[in-house]
Amino acid sequence: MARIRPVRPEDIDTLYAISLATGFEGGDASHLYDDPALMGHIYSAPYAALCPELALVVEDEAGIAGFAVGVVDTVSWAARLERDWWPALRKRYPDPVEIPAPERTPDQGRAFMIHHPEAPPVAVTDRYPAHLHMNLLPRLRGAGLGTRLFADWRRLAEAQRAGGVHVGVNRANARALGFWRKMGFRDLGCAEGRTLWMGRE
Prior knowledge:
Number of strands: 7
Radius of gyration: 16 Å
Order of helices and strands: EHHHEEHHHHEHEHEE
Number of helices: 9
Distance between the termini: 32 Å
Strand content: 15-25%
Strand order of the largest sheet: 1-2-3-4-5-7-6
């Protein structure tokens, strides 16, 4: 029986593992990266560490198998990451800016994101200022837990007076696209590279 609960500090290592296990179009990305922490550095750990009040995990008898993390103000969050999260990582990972993008390894691609974070279009953040990242391991998919997890996260965000919320989805992740559309998100017509931006009022 799975339950949803607030994140705890001791959960962060598991969030790193889940970020890697779901980081390739929703599937396992461990074969792509030499450094298994890179996905979590970007998509889960900073939220659990710096904004735990909007971080939830799903736990069953085998342990944590999913999470939802996010913030109510994406623009302010970017400024906080610049102050409190990226500096230490930028010392750890060299900036591969001089390597042409097509020639970068997956590790170098994520290191580039640490040095040059991707910002959603202003048209997205103006209307949908909140955002979240949500991932479930395969063993918990298809049982309605994603719907429950998003609903619980949304209630927390609304308690903080969140406005519209957006997600950035890899256009190759058909499962994720279908899920967010089912949750009432619509395509915002401003795709960038592999990312499709979707929003819900």
